Amino acid sequence: MRDNGGVAKDVAPGESTTEEPTEEPAGEPTSERAGRAAGRPTAPPARRRPPWSWWNMTLSLAALCVGAFALVLLNPGDQPEGSTPTVTYDLEAATAARAAPYALVVPEGLPDDWRATSVRYQPMGEFGATWRLGFLDPDDEYAAVAQADGDADGFIEEMTRGAEDTGSQQAVAGRDWARYEGDKYDALVLREAGVTTVVHGTAPFERLAHFAAALEVRTPES
Hints:
By secondary structure, this protein is of the alpha+beta class. The chain contains five helices and nine strands, in the order H-H-H-E-E-E-E-H-E-E-E-E-H-E. It has helices at 30-37, 54-74, 90-99, 152-160, 205-213, and strands at residues 105-107, 115-125, 128-136, 142-148, 164-172, 175-181, 186-192, 195-201, 215-217. The termini are far apart.
């Protein structure tokens, strides 16, 4: 056996002196094998982010707009604008009259060109039991009645949007209503034991007085 300057290795007869190459793991990147062989830590593979596109964003915005529109439709504002739908209120008024701790009023005998546009009763609102019924007059001006048995001053402030008492009164159906004037709404206010009634809106005082004169107590049976 010849010495080639390396370590001598005995070879049995019939054996090959050629070493078989070590089999490497399939599918492993060369850079990772090299890094592991050198003792360097290898970085974990980057996670692929979920696909996103302008189409997804458009669908999301559309869903938000539909939800916002539904909330507005189900909760009409104080002053209807544009093509506001007409609502019925007989059933709601009868139900509220049964629950309210005061004599609940609604307008009776208004001409057909007065349209009810919003109705709401809250048994435990910010100002106690609160009844609200809104209309559009023949000129599409807003007029509404609101009643509550809570804090009268706070209730008047909220319903009239900050209108101020003028110190004058207006006789309506044999009772004196206080006149309030404001930047958004004018109002006629009647304070009684256990309930405050506010007739307010963008309609002129003449129309507000006509609306107030039509108010009658609603009983659960009527």
